[in-house]
Amino acid sequence: MRALVKQQAAPGLWLADVPEPRTGPGDVLIRVLRTGICGTDLHIRDWDGWARQAVETPLVLGHEFVGEVAHIGDDVADIRVGDLVSGEGHLVCGKCRNCLAGRRHLCRSTIGLGVGRDGAFAEYVALPASNVWVHQAKVDLDIAAIFDPFGNAVHTALSFPLVGEDVVITGAGPIGIMATAVAQHAGARHVVVTDVSEPRLELARKAGASLALNVSDADLAEAQRELGLKEGFDVGLEMSGRPEAVRDMVDNMTHGGRIAMLGLPAREFPLDWSKIVTSMITIKGIYGREMYETWYAMTVLLEGGLDISPVITARYGYEEFEAAFDEAATARSGKIILDWTV
User: Fold this and answer.
1) Residue 166 lies in a domain
2) Which residues of 72-83 are buried (b: 16+ CB within 10 A; e: fewer)?
3) What is the CA angle 149-78-38, rounded to 5?
4) 40: annotated active-site residue
């Protein structure tokens, strides 16, 4: 089968012929229809410091996908050949304290699809049945292909109650844009999004932002004045990983405010912890999705009319992967889709 492979420990990706994945009695073989390009995939292509530590070559990349079930193992129940499915890209041990307690998203031994094992940038991908999400309701293939990052957005945005709250989102990348739509749909009063990319801020506006603020020439204090806020933001969703964004967020939270942090900083940075203590701010780290409560919430949100389609800005055939990756690496794009049926 054809697949996008990190063949060697060097920058670049290769479109190659590789064997179809083997499956066991508890596994599902999926014919991939479409995939989304993630920042993780860009790191692996560039072969940066993180990728050199995390990845062993050769490796088939990709963890955002939708496909059609082609084969099920003998022990698989409730999944049928022909089902339209996406996949939870975090494979957990099932044996640790958190897994046994049903908190699988907290597993210390998580293996990432397309990072620690061969992934979905291929004509076929194999997953344990427990990691397969069957789309029972009708869903657009492009949207189904990005259920993984959509789950990051939902997990982060719904970490705290949002009805009637004033929300600030730092970082208008694809997940920040989807979180904007979720927060607006979930009943937030104001949703302010910050970034330095005007094209991405425009996507945030299309997703429902009350105010999309370019922080290269303004700050959150100005956003508060423009919206008439008196005491600061109630909920912060940090998607950028940028020290200056985190500090600006903390400075503009109300006393008792709550911050969910998904953005991964490139390095350590100082923070005014005395302000966090005296303002009684709650900070929660977010990684991945809650299995499978977040997946259920995603499906229900879409059934309830949530529209995240503005986040998808381009589609390519998989053989055009180099152009697709180049566009995904810009500060202008949303989600980029690869079509594996062409």
Assistant:
1) yes
2) bbeebeebeeeb
3) 15
4) yes
Specify the pairing of strand 335-339 against strand 27-36.
Answer: antiparallel
266: pLDDT strictly greater than 90: no
287 is in an annotated binding site: yes
pLDDT value of position 331: 83
Domain that holds residue 109: 2-145+307-339
Q: Would you list the DSSP string of 158-214?
A: TTS--TT-EEEEE--SHHHHHHHHHHHHTT-SEEEEEES-HHHHHHHHHTT-SEEEE
Which listed residue (43, 71, 135, 299) is catalytic?
43
Half-sphere exposure of 67 (CA within 13 A, CB side): 30
Cα–Cα distance, 341 to 217 (Å, whole number): 44
CATH code for the domain in which residue 34 is found: 3.90.180.10
In a domain, residue 295? The reply is no
> Any binding-site annotation on 175?
yes
Active site residue 170: no
Annotated catalytic residue, options 23, 35, 40, 294: 40
264 appears as a binding residue in the annotation: yes
Mean pLDDT of the region 313-341: 96
In this structure, what token pair is assigned to residue 328?
Answer: 């995904």
Span 3-25, average pLDDT? 97
pTM of this structure: 0.95
| 198 annotated as ligand-binding | no
